[in-house]
Specification:
The complex is a heterodimer.
Chain A lengths: L5 E10 L2 E11 L4 E5 L6 H8 L7 E6 L2 E2 L5 H6 L2 E4 L11 H8 L8 H11 L1 H5 L10 H13 L5 E5 L7 H16 L4 E5 L2 H7 L2 E6 L2 E7 H6 L1 H6 L4
Parallel strand pairs in A: 3-8, 3-9, 6-7, 7-8
Antiparallel strand pairs in A: 1-2, 1-4, 4-5, 9-10
Helix pairs in contact in A: 3-6
Chain B lengths: L2 H32 L6 H17 L5 H24 L7 H23 L4 E2 L7 E4 L2 E4 H23 L1 H11 L1 H6 L4 H26 L2 E2 L3 H16 L4 H20 L6 H15 L14
Helix pairs in contact in B: 1-5, 1-8, 1-9, 1-10, 2-3, 2-4, 2-8, 2-9, 3-8, 5-6, 5-8, 6-8, 9-10, 10-11
The chains are: A alpha/beta, B mainly alpha.
The complex binds adenosine-5'-diphosphate (ADP) and magnesium ion.
């Protein structure tokens, strides 16, 4: 096995005195889709936000392409090739679709902008139609596409997505997962956080199950889909 | 009141209004980005005014050089205050930040009193003369003030809407966390916002001196309050709102004076503010400011 792209080792994260992440370790290899699944409040978002630098672990190590991220500011982490599509999309509601995508390209030379916009518009034709529209007027599904497109504009070596299917109608959920699948086939490396365990495990190469700040189970997507424990706890079977 | 008096008062109103607008922009931009009512902003104008005063009366510099020095001093001061006093409080409650700003304001006013003396320093008009158009006399100072303000606002609008830094400013003011996830540096963007706001205050200080050629340690507080009201009236956080608010307050004041009610000027301004806020709590062009994370 080659050195992992992202390696998280025994991190502990606190909110004041609340111990939200209790010593978790995982890794993502280049080209993989890895998913973290778990119930609401398990610590999934806290984990992604810590990798992205928005939160600091009290102990433990996070390395990306062999370099430690522990002391790197969140905006510098983006320059290193790590991008987060945050929970709740967090698109810039008062800016246009195109301006949101330009913000996504903040780390990139201006000369690449046109080609990169084109690439995102090919993935998300809806965004092309609405490029001059204010993001606040988009539907939830369109905002999610914008958030994903915006993250792709920085040419991430690893893209992290925090519950991209949250609050979307089933047909849109399917569409979002189709796009995740096609990004994967293009060679993207993805760390996917989901409550929708069924869908996440179906696209994932490997998965970790998170419960109250600890990893309680790990395996390939297929193994977990077939595991009785998971079927009972997360798949409602 | 005849037509030419009315026109003259409108031009007067536009002249003071454009100064209010320039200063209001600084309040609004800083509030938009870090939710701070920067009470020290008015005092930046005072410092700019002293720079102009001494440049011209003591050192006999060309007025244009005085303007450049005033803008440079305002920017340096604004960014220093931000770095020294506000940056360490980035994640502190907004109230701590507000109290710090009031403290900085006292510091600047008392510092100026110590250095320059408490007396009002008067100087000769910087731009004397006027031109008669029909029966209306317009001072060159008014023409320059209105022109410079409109040009400054045009450049600012272009900067905020079309440059990478301007868009980053808007992104930070909407969602700091998400902006960082784009690779945007908060430190750089916030400092830039203070620099732009202070530069506008520096320009405002020169234009203010063109209208009232005197500097005093407390001159920034009244002007600051008027500009602050303008920013709130227009919708704090909104750039076009600050411009609109400035012009409304300036015009209102001069039209009230024109009907010989100038002693009621400030009261009317406050009444208008209160009525607008009752009808639209976010100000005329304001949008709801969401809690920052
Ligand atoms: N800002 C916060 N302050 C305090 N506690 C928090 C905060 N954010 C999350 N938590 C707590 O941390 C735990 C993990 O939350 P989170 O990472 O958001 O879970 P998930 O994304 O898996 O739903 C939860 O118990 C949650 O209540
Ligand atoms: Mg979450």
């Amino acid at each position: 096995m080659t050195a992992p792209l992202l390696k998280v080792e025994d991190i502990n994260v606190f909110y004041g005195s609340i111990h939200a992440i209790k010593g978790i370790s995982f890794e993502v290899q280049e080209g993989e889709i890895v998913t973290l699944i778990g119930a609401n409040g398990a610590g999934k978002s806290t984990t992604l936000n810590t990798v992205a630098g928005l939160l600091r672990p009290r102990s433990g190590e996070i390395s990306f392409m062999g370099e430690s991220l522990i002391r790197t500011a969140p905006n510098r982490i983006v320059f290193k090739g790590l991008s987060l599509v945050p929970e709740g999309r967090r698109v810039f509601l008062r800016m246009t679709v195109e301006e949101n995508l330009e913000m996504g390209a903040y780390t990139q030379p201006a000369a690449n902008l046109k080609a990169d916009l084109e690439h995102v518009f090919e993935l998300f034709p809806r965004l092309r139609e609405r490029r001059r529209q204010i993001a606040g007027t988009l539907s939830g599904g369109e905002q999610q596409m914008l958030a994903m497109g915006r993250a792709l504009m920085s040419h991430p070596k690893l893209i992290m997505m925090d519950e991209p299917s949250m609050g979307l109608a089933p047909i849109l959920v399917e569409q979002i997962f189709d796009i995740i699948g096609s990004l994967h086939r293009e060679g993207a490396t993805i760390l996917l956080v989901e409550q929708n365990a069924q869908a996440a495990l179906s696209v994932a190469d490997r998965a970790y199950v998170l419960e109250t700040g600890r990893i309680v189970l790990t395996g390939t997507g297929r193994e977990l889909l077939e595991s009785d424990e998971i079927r009972k706890a997360y798949l409602g079977a | 009141m005849n037509l030419s008096t009315l026109l003259a008062q409108i031009i007067n109103g536009l002249q003071t209004g454009s100064i209010y607008a320039l200063v209001a922009l600084g309040y609004s931009m800083v509030y938009g980005i870090i939710l701070l009512l920067n009470f020290a902003h008015g005092d930046i104008i005072m410092v700019g005014a002293y720079v102009v005063y001494y440049s011209i009366t003591r050192f006999a510099f060309h007025p244009l050089l005085a303007v450049l020095l005033a803008v440079a001093a305002s920017v340096a001061l604004g960014v220093t205050v931000e770095k020294v006093a506000y940056t360490p409080l980035r994640s502190a409650p907004r109230l701590s930040l507000l109290i710090t700003a009031i403290g900085v304001s006292f510091l600047l006013e008392n510092g100026a009193q110590m250095i320059f003396g408490a007396d009002t320093k008067s100087m000769d008009p910087i731009v004397p003369g006027s031109v008669a158009i029909g029966s209306v006399t317009i001072s060159y100072a008014a023409i320059i003030t209105i022109a410079v303000s409109v040009i400054s606002m045009f450049i600012l609008t272009r900067l905020v809407n079309s440059t990478k830094m301007g868009k980053a400013m808007r992104a930070v003011s909407e969602d700091m966390g998400a902006a960082q996830l784009m690779g945007i540096s908060l430190n750089k963007t916030i400092s830039f916002t203070f620099a732009v706001g202070s530069a506008l205050a520096g320009i405002g200080s020169v234009l203010y001196l063109c209208a009232y050629p005197q500097a005093s340690p407390t001159m920034g507080s009244m002007l600051g309050i008027k500009a602050f009201i303008a920013a709130v009236l227009g919708g704090i956080g909104s750039i076009p709102g600050a411009m609109l608010g400035g012009f409304i307050i300036g015009l209102l004041e001069s039209l009230i004076s024109a009907v010989h009610l100038s002693m009621w000027k400030d009261a009317v301004v406050f009444v208008v503010l209160i009525v607008v806020l009752l009808l639209k709590p976010t100000g005329i062009l304001g949008h709801k400011v969401q809690e920052k994370v």
